[in-house]
């Protein structure tokens, strides 16, 4: 399976909401959000991930799933897009990359429930159909 187009742009992306689980005081964010911590841990773990150059991690300011934080999404060209929430730090970080690897291997992106790591079985928020060009 080809992972990059002729322009060198990655065809897969792991989006991470960096504002999830923020603490707010007087209309301003206080301290580091849970989403930022998740993003940092994913970026650290991904340094040794075999797909780090083919499946970049991209931070997002907000993914509008605040009541289900922390949130990540997998997207790929011609594939289903998945949005997962209710992710906590530490033990879920490796599960996110494991699930992203499984997603990468699927031509259509379909991630059956039984094939997902445990933390991503119950936290699914959306499965969005692919755009067929």
Explain what you see:
InterPro entries: DUF1636, Thioredoxin-like_sf. Helix 1 crosses helix 2. The longest helix has 15 residues, at 91-105. The chain has helices at residues 34-46, 91-105; strands spanning 12-17, 23-25, 28-30, 57-60, 72-76, 81-84, 124-128. It is of the alpha+beta class. A hairpin with a 2-residue loop joins strand 2 and strand 3 (28-30). The model is unreliable at 1-8 (pLDDT under 50). The protein has a single domain, classed as Glutaredoxin (3-Layer(aba) Sandwich), CATH 3.40.30.10. It contains two helices and seven strands; from the N terminus they run E-E-E-H-E-E-E-H-E. The strands form two sheets. The chain has a five-stranded mixed β-sheet with strand order 4-1-5-6-7, covered by helices on one side. A two-stranded antiparallel ribbon has the order 2-3.
């Amino acid at each position: 399976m080809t992972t990059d187009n002729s322009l060198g742009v990655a065809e897969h992306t792991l989006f991470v909401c960096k504002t999830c689980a923020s603490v707010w005081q007087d209309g301003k964010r206080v301290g580091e959000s849970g989403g930022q911590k998740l993003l940092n841990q994913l970026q650290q773990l991904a340094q040794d991930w075999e797909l780090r150059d083919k499946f970049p991690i991209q931070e997002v300011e907000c993914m509008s799933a605040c009541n289900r934080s922390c949130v990540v999404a997998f997207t790929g060209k011609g594939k289903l897009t998945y949005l997962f929430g209710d992710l906590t730090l530490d033990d879920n970080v490796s599960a996110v990359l494991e699930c992203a690897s499984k997603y990468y291997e699927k031509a259509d992106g379909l991630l059956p429930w039984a094939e997902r790591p445990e933390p991503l079985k119950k936290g699914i928020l959306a499965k969005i159909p692919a755009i067929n060009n």
